[in-house]
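Our preliminary data section would be incomplete without showing what the modeling component actually yields. Below, a chain of 247 amino acids is followed by its predicted structure, encoded as tokens that our downstream tools consume directly.
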Amino acid sequence: MVTELPCLVDQSSEAGSFRPDITVFVNGLPLAFCEVKIPNNLKGMQAEYERMNKRTSNMRYRRFLNSTQLMVFSNNMEYDDMEAVPLSGTFYATNGLGHLFFSHFREEDNSVYEGVAPFSPTDEDNILQDNHMTVLKGRADYALNCDPMTPTNRILTSLFTKERFLWLLYYGITYVEKVNDKGVMEISKHLMSYPIPWNKKIAMRFSEQVRAGYRMKNKLTAENNTLIALRDFLLPMLMNGQVTFRQ
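Predicted structure:
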């Protein structure tokens, strides 16, 4: 992962520059990014929602955004379910044509956090030096942000452990055909609207059932192709009398 990877589509204007706070690479592809804001930021997460929808509607960003499968947005605050417009919390979304939908994330398997190991002082110093941020060490807000149980760190752990992220890429995103505002049919990408079973045992069982379905589909497709080839071979000969059926 890298910080503030530049995505420039128009160097002549500020609106044409986008630098996600954190970009996550998998095999060299930028498949996810995270935008992290300070708590109690102006207009809260609604401000980020409005900014991102302007970017996703700008076709000049498509080269960058088309490769993005997952977006995370956080101002490191707990959800306030009394807010009519979400201003506080951590949200995730996928990039599709049209408006983004910010989804809440609530972890049901808290054991996932037990595997988070603290940074060694050497690794911590190397990361701070690499990002030219050594001045942060010792500050109260820096110490708070190092806590693995902050809202931001919880969602990052939940979504970006290897098994979770792979599961989400396989089963958490779907493509839907819909007619846009101009009456044109387009394919739009969405996160699944049902709760995603992160429990490892449930995930493995669900994954095996899906694989079994694909194996059956491939078997039936192969059988159909064999029957089609046999039909195409025999039908012309039956029609011109080269072969006949026994009475």
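Residues 2-194 form one domain. The chain has two domains: 2-194, 199-247. Preliminary results of this kind motivate Aim 1 of the renewal.
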